[in-house]
Specification:
mainly alpha
Length: 118
C-alpha cells in the first residue's frame, strides 16, 4: 500500500501535466496522454488503484474485501473502460487514439508495440 499510493498520485499528476486535464470533475484532457506511465498501459491509474485496493485487503487480512475487489470492482471498472472511456477517447482524439490503443496494452503493463509503417 505504501508503494502504490504514490503511484496513484503520480498517475494523476502525469495525466494533469502531460494530458492537460484530470480524471475527475476538472478540465477535460486536451491532449492524449501516451508517454511516461501511459507508454506501458493505457490505464496506469486504474491499475494502481486496483492494486492498492488489493494490497489494502491483504493489509486488513480481509478475504471479503479482496473478493469484492476481484469479483466486483475490477470487472466493473474494466467494463466501464472498454465500453465508455475508450469510445469517448476515440471520438475526442480520433486516429491517434486508435493507434495508441493498437500498440499499448489496456491494463496490465507491457512493452509497447512498434508503430506499423504503411
Amino acid at each position: 500500500m505504501w508503494m502504490l499510493g504514490p503511484v496513484v498520485a503520480l498517475t494523476v499528476i502525469n495525466l494533469a501535466v502531460r494530458g492537460l486535464g484530470a480524471p475527475f470533475a476538472a478540465p477535460i484532457s486536451r491532449r492524449l496522454a501516451t508517454d511516461w506511465l501511459y507508454r506501458y498501459t493505457r490505464n496506469p491509474m486504474v491499475l494502481a488503484v486496483l492494486l492498492f485496493l488489493f494490497a489494502m485487503g491483504l493489509w486488513l487480512r480481509s478475504a471479503w474485501f479482496i473478493a469484492w475487489v476481484v469479483a466486483l470492482v475490477a470487472p466493473a471498472w474494466v467494463w466501464y473502460l472498454m465500453v465508455f472511456e475508450e469510445r469517448e477517447l476515440e471520438l475526442r482524439f480520433g486516429s491517434p487514439s486508435l493507434e495508441y490503443r493498437s500498440r499499448t496494452p489496456m491494463l496490465w503493463p507491457g512493452r509497447p508495440r512498434r508503430r506499423q509503417r504503411g
